[in-house]
């Protein structure tokens, strides 16, 4: 098939990431699902932990076999898994099928789609690595807002309607993704952008995965990513609960809207920090991200102390922007520090920070179950980012090999 304008592939990428990003609507979904299942928060939160782990594994699988497979070879089975997982989860009577369907099968599909889209779009836009990463990941981030609102609206009226909603989502995702799977592709190996030689910022190094993981700069960044991602997941996974504690009279629709604000800010944060990365050094951008988290934590503390919904909303906006920055920085820093030749596998290795960070959502759920307040959860989030701030003091861009 003849190649389209690279902008067309970027639009396709955003749509596919909108489909794959529904996993981040879990906080809103969980509140609706638990009205029927009535499960402890920590037990239910394990679903989100599982989906984050399998999301990373899916990306890693795509990165490993990507050079030997076509885009279609990866996207078609990933599309089937994404949809099949939702259907399986819709039949759960407790948490078992929820873990298997949503947590494992859909998570794997989402991770593969994410890696395929990001690695190929990166090749189409070598001159705008930070910005295009932000645009792509904005689609992934705002998916939770769109899906969350639709899920609540479609599930209202009966506590079991969420099961039908899962099936309808599965059908929609399958149809859209199946069409795009046959249209989306990466550029030819000799692809060049006009004027790119002057505009492109050359990578510091071009490293194979084995060498990259031994670099001090990679180790520092990886730990930083675990801590900041964990901080974001702490809030994302418990967002609806935080809103309810701040204002216990608020309805499900309003909760979905407020939590959706976090998702929109998440998307904006990806674009904002992507653009900043193209203009500033990585460490400066990372410090700015941590500062945003700290400010968000302060807003949540005020909201919980004084039951002020507006403070919670401001906190979600700032936290969403900060959390949105992390995956964009992941993409941009791997390309800038360690090169584009092995981007797909190096990027998927970096994204495994989510496997460790994902336990933050389960920890947050357990903390709430133990103390009955989200104030302790916010305190843990702040500890994560303060340690992250200390971690990046010695970070330096590699000098090259």
List keywords for this structure.
globular; mainly alpha; Growth Hormone, Chain: A; 0% strand; 401 residues
Q: Could you characterize the architecture of this molecule?
A:
The chain has a single domain (6-185, 201-391), classed as MFS general substrate transporter like domains (Growth Hormone, Chain: A, Up-down Bundle), CATH 1.20.1250.20. It contains 17 helices and no strands. It has helices spanning 6-20, 26-37, 41-65, 71-89, 96-124, 129-155, 161-181, 196-199, 209-212, 216-246, 252-279, 282-306, 309-338, 343-350, 353-357, 359-371, 375-391. The chain is globular and about 60 Å long. The model has no long low-confidence stretch (mean pLDDT 86).
């Amino acid at each position: 098939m003849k190649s389209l304008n690279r902008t067309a592939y970027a639009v396709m990428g955003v749509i596919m990431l909108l489909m794959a990003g529904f996993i981040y609507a879990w906080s809103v979904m969980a509140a609706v699902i638990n009205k029927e299942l009535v499960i402890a928060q920590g037990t239910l939160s394990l679903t989100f932990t599982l989906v984050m782990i399998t999301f990373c594994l899916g990306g890693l699988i795509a990165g490993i076999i990507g050079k030997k497979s076509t885009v279609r070879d990866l996207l078609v089975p990933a599309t089937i898994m994404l949809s099949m997982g939702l259907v399986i989860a819709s039949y759960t009577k407790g948490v078992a099928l929820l873990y298997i369907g949503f947590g494992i099968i859909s998570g794997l599909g989402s991770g593969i789609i994410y890696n395929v889209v990001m690695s190929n779009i990166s090749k189409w836009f070598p001159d705008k690595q930070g910005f295009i990463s932000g645009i792509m990941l904005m689609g992934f981030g705002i998916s939770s807002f769109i899906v969350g609102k639709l899920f609540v609206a479609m599930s209202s009226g009966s506590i079991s309607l969420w099961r039908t909603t899962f099936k309808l989502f599965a059908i929609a995702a399958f149809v859209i993704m199946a069409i795009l799977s046959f249209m989306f592709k990466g550029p030819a190996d000799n692809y060049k952008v006009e004027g790119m030689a002057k505009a492109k910022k050359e990578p510091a190094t071009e490293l194979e995965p084995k060498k990259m993981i031994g670099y001090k700069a990679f180790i520092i960044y990886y730990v930083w990513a675990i801590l900041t991602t964990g901080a974001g997941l702490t809030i994302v996974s418990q967002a609806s609960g935080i809103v309810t504690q701040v204002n216990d009279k608020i309805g499900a629709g309003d909760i979905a809207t407020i939590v959706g604000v976090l998702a929109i800010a998440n998307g904006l944060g990806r674009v904002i920090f992507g653009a900043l990365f193209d203009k500033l050094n990585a460490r400066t951008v990372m410090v700015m991200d941590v500062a945003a988290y700290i400010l968000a934590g302060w807003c949540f503390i005020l909201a919980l102390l004084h039951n002020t919904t507006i403070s919670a909303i401001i906190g979600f906006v700032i936290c969403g922007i900060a959390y949105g920055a992390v995956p964009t920085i992941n993409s941009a820093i791997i390309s800038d520090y360690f090169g584009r030749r092995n981007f797909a596998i190096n990027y998927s290795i970096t994204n495994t920070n989510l496997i460790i960070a994902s336990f933050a959502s389960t920890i947050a759920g357990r903390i709430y179950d133990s103390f009955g307040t989200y104030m302790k959860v916010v305190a843990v989030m702040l500890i994560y980012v303060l340690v992250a701030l200390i971690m990046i003091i010695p970070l330096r861009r590699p000098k090259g090999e």
